[in-house]
Design goal:
Helix content is 64%, strand content 6%. It has 13 helices and three strands; from the N terminus they run αααααααααβαβααβα. About 2% of the residues have low confidence. Strands 1-3-2 form a three-stranded parallel beta sheet, with helices on both faces.
């Protein structure tokens, strides 16, 4: 298990694509995320008390863990190595920071006067919030495309259409018992197609990407050992993943630069890169050493 390891699984990535897409369609008004079996996951997060807080946190952690660097990632990385009182204090302070705006409002009701009053703008705002979710879906589809091939990507896109069709039917009113049976049967078929499409996508694997202009070597434990034994050579190891947004930003703004390449060549530094987008036992073992 490593940081953001859940996004190494096409099953998890595909399921998150479905969940965020469904939430976006709900915010857009295609259907009402009300009662029924389709609301099982969201219903857990809306429970009052500890259970609602727990399931809301689970969803937030699964989606947000690749994006917690550089600031929260450092704090959490330190917390897991500390004794439990210190570790819990770090998590408590993170929670305190997230709750601080509402906490200030509760202690100073006068601040609430600065908040906008309820009105029709809230429905417009709700619909506008669907578009960040759609962007997150696009990002996850890109991650899935890096884990599978074109066939797997097409399967998930078919699953999204089937999911949207099912959710559209869920938002329709029953027009009698016969139509109700037909609607419910169609919803079930659509959901089965969506799940089958996800299962099909998870079976496909992407081919290793060959970058003609690459100036790094692919990670190899034996090659790394060979370089470390050579007193005339240094090695720089970069472990990355396509679902790690911070990793991609670091590569774009800092590592994949002509100045860096020239400096490495001048100092006899070999640049080695490991891709952890999809689970790799060798990279997992290497990360476990640290």
């Amino acid at each position: 298990i490593g940081w953001g390891f859940q996004l190494q699984s096409p099953w998890i990535v595909g399921a998150l694509i479905y969940v965020l897409f469904a939430l976006g369609l709900s915010l857009s008004g295609l259907f009402d995320l009300g009662g029924g079996f389709m609301n099982a996951g969201q219903g857990l997060t809306e429970k009052s008390g500890l259970s609602g807080s727990f399931f809301t946190g689970v969803l937030a952690c699964i989606v947000a863990s690749p994006c917690t660097a550089p600031f929260m990632g450092a704090a959490l990385g330190a917390a897991v190595l500390m004794a439990w009182p210190m570790a819990l204090s770090i998590f408590a302070m993170l929670g305190f920071g997230l709750a601080l705006p509402l906490l200030l409002l509760s202690f100073s009701p006068a601040l609430a006067r600065w908040l906008p009053r309820p009105g029709p703008w809230m429905d417009t705002f709700k619909q506008a919030m669907a578009f960040p979710l759609y962007l997150a879906v696009v990002w996850l589809i890109w991650v899935l495309a890096r884990q599978t091939d074109a066939n797997g990507l097409a399967a998930v896109l078919i699953g999204l259409v089937a999911l949207a069709f099912s959710l559209w039917l869920i938002g329709k009113k029953d027009g009698g018992p016969v139509l109700a049976v037909a609607r419910h049967s169609s919803v079930a078929v659509g959901l089965v197609v969506a799940i089958a499409a996800l299962a099909a996508a998870a079976r496909f694997e992407s081919s290793p990407e060959q970058v003609a202009s690459a100036w790094w070597e692919d990670y190899s434990a034996s090659r790394l050992a060979e370089l470390r034994d050579d007193p005339e050579t240094a090695v720089f190891v970069n472990m990355t993943a396509d679902w790690c947004l911070t990793c991609k930003v670091n590569e774009g703004v800092a590592l994949n630069k002509d100045q860096v390449r020239e400096a490495f060549e001048a100092e006899s530094v070999v640049y080695m890169k490991g891709d952890w987008t999809r689970r790799d036992a060798a990279i997992t073992d290497y990360l476990a050493e640290f």
